[in-house]
Design goal:
Blueprint lengths: L9 E2 L9 E2 L9 H13 L2 E6 L3 H6 L1 H10 L3 E8 L2 E4 L2
Length: 91
C-alpha cells in the first residue's frame, strides 16, 4: 500500500514561530471524501442553511454544494452566507 499524507496534515512555515499551517487548504483538499460528504449534506439539509466563509475563494470552493442546496434540495427554505463583510441571503 502506498504512503498518503493525511488530509489534515500541518507544517510549520517558520520554525522560529509556533504557528502551524495546513498542508492542504479546504479549497485544495486532495481527498474525494470531503466532496462526497458535502454532497450528502447538501441533499439532506432542511430549513434555513447557514454557510460561513472567510473569503471569496472559500465561497468558490463551496459552489458545487451550494448548487445542490439551492437547485436540487426542495427542503431548503433559505440559504444565508455569512462572511467577514456581512450576511447575504441567496434563496
Amino acid at each position: 500500500m502506498g504512503s498518503y499524507e493525511a488530509i489534515d496534515a500541518v507544517y510549520m512555515p517558520n520554525p522560529d514561530l509556533a504557528q502551524k499551517e495546513k498542508v492542504y487548504s479546504p479549497e485544495d483538499n486532495p481527498s474525494p471524501v470531503v466532496e462526497l460528504i458535502h454532497k450528502l449534506y447538501g441533499m439532506h439539509v432542511r430549513g434555513v442553511v447557514h454557510v460561513y466563509v472567510a473569503d471569496a475563494s472559500e465561497l468558490s470552493a463551496l459552489s458545487p454544494i451550494l448548487r445542490i442546496i439551492m437547485a436540487w434540495n426542495d427542503g431548503v427554505d433559505k440559504v444565508c452566507v455569512h462572511t467577514s463583510s456581512g450576511l447575504f441571503l441567496l434563496r
